[in-house]
Fold this sequence. Notes:
Blueprint: H1 6-13, H2 21-28, E1 34-38, E2 41-46, E3 49-55, H3 64-78, E4 83-86, E5 93-94, H4 98-103, E6 107-118, E7 132-135, H5 139-149, E8 162-167, E9 173-180, E10 194-202, H6 211-225, E11 230-236, H7 239-243, E12 248-259
Parallel strand pairs: 3-4, 10-11
Antiparallel strand pairs: 1-2, 2-3, 4-12, 5-12, 6-11, 6-12, 7-8, 8-9, 9-10
Amino acid sequence: MTHMTEYEIFCACFPMLNLSEQLFEELSEISNCARFNAEGGFALVKDNTIMLLAVHPNYRGKGTGSTLLEMCENEIGGKGYEKSELGGFLYGAVEGSNGFFEKRGYTLGNEYCEMKISLLDYHDPLSDVGAKFGFYNDITDICSAVGMVDDDWVQYFDGGGEYFCGFDLSGKLVSFCIIGDDECCLISEENIRTGSVGCVGTVPEARGKGIGLKMVSLALEELKRRGCDQCFIHQTHLYGWYGKLGARTVLKFKTAEKKI
Protein backbone atom coordinates (compact mmCIF):
# COMPACT_ATOMS: atom_id res chain seq x y z
CA MET A 1 0.00 0.00 0.00
CA THR A 2 1.30 3.43 -0.88
CA HIS A 3 2.07 5.96 1.82
CA MET A 4 -1.07 7.25 3.50
CA THR A 5 -1.59 10.57 5.17
CA GLU A 6 -2.91 10.77 8.71
CA TYR A 7 -6.19 12.06 7.36
CA GLU A 8 -6.54 9.09 4.98
CA ILE A 9 -5.90 6.66 7.84
CA PHE A 10 -8.44 8.48 9.99
CA CYS A 11 -11.10 8.27 7.27
CA ALA A 12 -10.49 4.53 6.83
CA CYS A 13 -10.81 3.97 10.59
CA PHE A 14 -13.94 6.10 11.03
CA PRO A 15 -16.06 5.78 7.88
CA MET A 16 -19.13 6.87 9.86
CA LEU A 17 -17.66 10.38 10.13
CA ASN A 18 -17.48 12.82 7.23
CA LEU A 19 -15.05 15.42 8.52
CA SER A 20 -13.17 17.51 6.02
CA GLU A 21 -9.38 17.41 6.31
CA GLN A 22 -9.38 20.95 7.68
CA LEU A 23 -11.92 20.12 10.39
CA PHE A 24 -10.09 16.89 11.26
CA GLU A 25 -6.92 18.89 11.85
CA GLU A 26 -8.80 21.47 13.91
CA LEU A 27 -10.71 19.05 16.14
CA SER A 28 -7.79 16.68 16.68
CA GLU A 29 -5.52 19.62 17.57
CA ILE A 30 -2.91 17.89 15.46
CA SER A 31 -0.68 20.97 15.21
CA ASN A 32 -0.46 21.15 19.02
CA CYS A 33 0.22 17.46 19.58
CA ALA A 34 3.24 15.20 19.65
CA ARG A 35 2.82 13.02 16.55
CA PHE A 36 3.92 9.40 16.18
CA ASN A 37 3.85 7.28 13.06
CA ALA A 38 4.24 3.61 12.27
CA GLU A 39 3.42 1.75 9.08
CA GLY A 40 -0.31 2.08 8.52
CA GLY A 41 -1.04 4.12 11.65
CA PHE A 42 -0.44 7.22 13.71
CA ALA A 43 -1.05 8.61 17.19
CA LEU A 44 -1.41 12.06 18.75
CA VAL A 45 -0.50 13.01 22.32
CA LYS A 46 -1.20 16.22 24.21
CA ASP A 47 0.02 16.52 27.80
CA ASN A 48 -0.89 13.14 29.39
CA THR A 49 -3.73 12.44 26.96
CA ILE A 50 -3.69 10.18 23.92
CA MET A 51 -5.92 12.25 21.67
CA LEU A 52 -6.11 9.65 18.92
CA LEU A 53 -4.54 6.33 18.02
CA ALA A 54 -5.57 5.04 14.61
CA VAL A 55 -4.44 2.01 12.61
CA HIS A 56 -5.70 1.39 9.09
CA PRO A 57 -7.85 -1.78 8.96
CA ASN A 58 -5.36 -3.43 6.58
CA TYR A 59 -2.56 -3.07 9.14
CA ARG A 60 -4.31 -4.29 12.27
CA GLY A 61 -3.03 -7.37 14.05
CA LYS A 62 0.54 -6.68 12.95
CA GLY A 63 1.79 -4.85 16.04
CA THR A 64 1.33 -1.33 14.70
CA GLY A 65 -1.11 -0.34 17.44
CA SER A 66 1.12 -1.71 20.20
CA THR A 67 4.12 0.12 18.79
CA LEU A 68 2.23 3.41 18.65
CA LEU A 69 0.83 2.97 22.15
CA GLU A 70 4.32 2.37 23.54
CA MET A 71 5.54 5.55 21.83
CA CYS A 72 2.66 7.50 23.37
CA GLU A 73 3.27 6.18 26.86
CA ASN A 74 7.00 6.88 26.63
CA GLU A 75 6.19 10.46 25.64
CA ILE A 76 3.75 10.87 28.52
CA GLY A 77 6.06 9.25 31.07
CA GLY A 78 8.98 11.29 29.80
CA LYS A 79 7.09 14.47 30.63
CA GLY A 80 6.77 13.33 34.24
CA TYR A 81 3.13 12.24 34.18
CA GLU A 82 2.16 9.17 36.15
CA LYS A 83 -1.05 8.43 34.29
CA SER A 84 -1.99 8.05 30.62
CA GLU A 85 -5.55 8.87 29.59
CA LEU A 86 -7.55 8.32 26.44
CA GLY A 87 -9.54 11.41 25.58
CA GLY A 88 -9.61 14.73 23.84
CA PHE A 89 -10.62 14.17 20.25
CA LEU A 90 -12.58 10.92 20.62
CA TYR A 91 -12.96 11.03 24.39
CA GLY A 92 -11.93 7.45 25.14
CA ALA A 93 -11.53 3.92 23.83
CA VAL A 94 -13.89 3.66 20.87
CA GLU A 95 -16.15 0.61 20.72
CA GLY A 96 -14.21 -2.23 19.17
CA SER A 97 -10.91 -1.08 20.65
CA ASN A 98 -11.82 -1.69 24.30
CA GLY A 99 -10.10 -5.07 24.38
CA PHE A 100 -6.91 -3.72 22.81
CA PHE A 101 -6.45 -1.15 25.56
CA GLU A 102 -7.63 -3.41 28.38
CA LYS A 103 -5.03 -6.04 27.46
CA ARG A 104 -2.39 -3.35 27.70
CA GLY A 105 -3.23 -2.32 31.24
CA TYR A 106 -5.91 0.33 30.76
CA THR A 107 -8.83 0.52 33.16
CA LEU A 108 -12.06 1.16 31.33
CA GLY A 109 -14.60 3.49 32.90
CA ASN A 110 -18.01 4.81 31.99
CA GLU A 111 -19.57 4.29 28.59
CA TYR A 112 -20.77 7.25 26.54
CA CYS A 113 -21.73 7.93 22.97
CA GLU A 114 -21.92 10.67 20.39
CA MET A 115 -25.37 10.96 18.80
CA LYS A 116 -27.05 12.90 16.05
CA ILE A 117 -30.62 13.79 15.18
CA SER A 118 -31.73 14.69 11.67
CA LEU A 119 -33.75 17.90 11.69
CA LEU A 120 -34.79 17.98 8.04
CA ASP A 121 -38.25 16.57 8.75
CA TYR A 122 -38.29 17.02 12.52
CA HIS A 123 -41.56 17.78 14.27
CA ASP A 124 -42.10 17.59 18.02
CA PRO A 125 -43.67 14.14 18.57
CA LEU A 126 -44.52 14.66 22.25
CA SER A 127 -47.78 15.65 23.84
CA ASP A 128 -48.19 18.51 26.32
CA VAL A 129 -46.60 17.88 29.72
CA GLY A 130 -48.07 20.72 31.75
CA ALA A 131 -45.04 22.98 31.63
CA LYS A 132 -43.84 26.12 29.88
CA PHE A 133 -40.68 26.50 27.83
CA GLY A 134 -38.49 29.26 26.47
CA PHE A 135 -35.15 31.02 26.50
CA TYR A 136 -34.00 32.33 29.86
CA ASN A 137 -31.03 34.45 30.95
CA ASP A 138 -31.22 34.73 34.74
CA ILE A 139 -27.82 33.12 35.33
CA THR A 140 -28.20 32.99 39.10
CA ASP A 141 -31.48 31.11 38.83
CA ILE A 142 -30.17 28.80 36.13
CA CYS A 143 -26.95 27.97 38.00
CA SER A 144 -28.93 27.17 41.12
CA ALA A 145 -30.89 24.56 39.17
CA VAL A 146 -27.80 23.27 37.37
CA GLY A 147 -26.05 22.77 40.70
CA MET A 148 -28.84 20.43 41.79
CA VAL A 149 -28.08 18.22 38.79
CA ASP A 150 -24.29 18.40 38.27
CA ASP A 151 -21.91 20.85 39.94
CA ASP A 152 -19.38 20.35 37.15
CA TRP A 153 -21.80 21.87 34.64
CA VAL A 154 -22.18 25.20 36.40
CA GLN A 155 -19.00 26.50 34.71
CA TYR A 156 -20.68 26.17 31.30
CA PHE A 157 -23.58 28.44 32.27
CA ASP A 158 -21.51 31.60 32.38
CA GLY A 159 -23.84 33.90 30.49
CA GLY A 160 -22.07 33.40 27.19
CA GLY A 161 -24.51 30.93 25.70
CA GLU A 162 -28.18 30.47 24.93
CA TYR A 163 -30.18 28.66 27.57
CA PHE A 164 -33.48 27.00 26.72
CA CYS A 165 -35.42 26.05 29.83
CA GLY A 166 -38.57 24.42 31.17
CA PHE A 167 -40.75 25.86 33.93
CA ASP A 168 -43.52 24.32 35.98
CA LEU A 169 -46.92 25.99 36.00
CA SER A 170 -45.93 28.12 38.98
CA GLY A 171 -43.11 29.58 36.88
CA LYS A 172 -40.28 27.80 38.68
CA LEU A 173 -37.28 26.79 36.56
CA VAL A 174 -37.12 22.98 36.58
CA SER A 175 -35.24 22.00 33.41
CA PHE A 176 -32.45 23.49 31.31
CA CYS A 177 -30.09 23.02 28.38
CA ILE A 178 -27.58 24.93 26.29
CA ILE A 179 -28.26 25.19 22.57
CA GLY A 180 -25.96 26.21 19.74
CA ASP A 181 -26.84 26.64 16.09
CA ASP A 182 -23.43 26.46 14.43
CA GLU A 183 -21.41 23.63 15.91
CA CYS A 184 -18.01 22.35 14.75
CA CYS A 185 -17.93 18.76 15.97
CA LEU A 186 -17.41 15.12 15.05
CA ILE A 187 -20.59 14.90 12.97
CA SER A 188 -19.94 18.11 11.03
CA GLU A 189 -20.02 17.89 7.24
CA GLU A 190 -19.44 20.38 4.46
CA ASN A 191 -22.61 22.25 3.50
CA ILE A 192 -24.46 20.71 6.46
CA ARG A 193 -25.35 23.06 9.29
CA THR A 194 -25.09 21.40 12.68
CA GLY A 195 -26.74 22.55 15.89
CA SER A 196 -26.29 21.18 19.38
CA VAL A 197 -28.13 20.58 22.62
CA GLY A 198 -26.00 19.99 25.70
CA CYS A 199 -25.84 19.96 29.51
CA VAL A 200 -29.45 18.81 29.60
CA GLY A 201 -30.88 18.43 33.09
CA THR A 202 -34.03 18.42 35.21
CA VAL A 203 -34.06 19.15 38.92
CA PRO A 204 -34.79 16.01 40.98
CA GLU A 205 -38.25 17.05 42.16
CA ALA A 206 -39.52 17.49 38.58
CA ARG A 207 -38.20 14.28 37.04
CA GLY A 208 -40.40 11.56 35.62
CA LYS A 209 -42.90 14.00 34.14
CA GLY A 210 -41.47 14.26 30.64
CA ILE A 211 -40.45 17.89 31.03
CA GLY A 212 -36.78 17.44 30.11
CA LEU A 213 -37.51 15.44 26.96
CA LYS A 214 -40.20 17.90 25.87
CA MET A 215 -37.73 20.75 26.40
CA VAL A 216 -35.16 19.07 24.17
CA SER A 217 -37.77 18.37 21.51
CA LEU A 218 -38.82 22.02 21.39
CA ALA A 219 -35.15 23.06 21.30
CA LEU A 220 -34.74 20.83 18.24
CA GLU A 221 -37.63 22.59 16.56
CA GLU A 222 -35.94 25.91 17.29
CA LEU A 223 -32.69 24.68 15.73
CA LYS A 224 -34.59 23.51 12.66
CA ARG A 225 -36.27 26.92 12.43
CA ARG A 226 -32.80 28.51 12.42
CA GLY A 227 -31.73 26.42 9.46
CA CYS A 228 -29.87 23.57 11.15
CA ASP A 229 -29.90 20.26 9.26
CA GLN A 230 -28.89 18.09 12.20
CA CYS A 231 -28.26 18.22 15.94
CA PHE A 232 -25.24 16.90 17.82
CA ILE A 233 -25.66 15.26 21.23
CA HIS A 234 -22.25 15.04 22.87
CA GLN A 235 -20.94 12.48 25.34
CA THR A 236 -24.18 11.04 26.69
CA HIS A 237 -25.16 7.71 28.19
CA LEU A 238 -28.89 8.33 27.67
CA TYR A 239 -29.11 6.42 24.38
CA GLY A 240 -32.70 5.31 24.81
CA TRP A 241 -33.88 8.67 26.12
CA TYR A 242 -32.63 10.63 23.13
CA GLY A 243 -33.66 7.75 20.89
CA LYS A 244 -37.29 8.69 21.58
CA LEU A 245 -36.64 11.82 19.53
CA GLY A 246 -35.00 9.91 16.68
CA ALA A 247 -31.37 10.25 17.78
CA ARG A 248 -28.96 7.61 16.55
CA THR A 249 -25.55 6.68 17.89
CA VAL A 250 -22.58 7.67 15.75
CA LEU A 251 -19.75 6.55 18.06
CA LYS A 252 -19.71 4.70 21.36
CA PHE A 253 -16.69 4.73 23.67
CA LYS A 254 -15.47 4.16 27.23
CA THR A 255 -13.22 6.39 29.26
CA ALA A 256 -9.86 4.74 29.95
CA GLU A 257 -6.68 5.38 31.89
CA LYS A 258 -3.49 3.63 32.96
CA LYS A 259 -0.80 4.26 35.53
CA ILE A 260 2.57 4.34 33.80
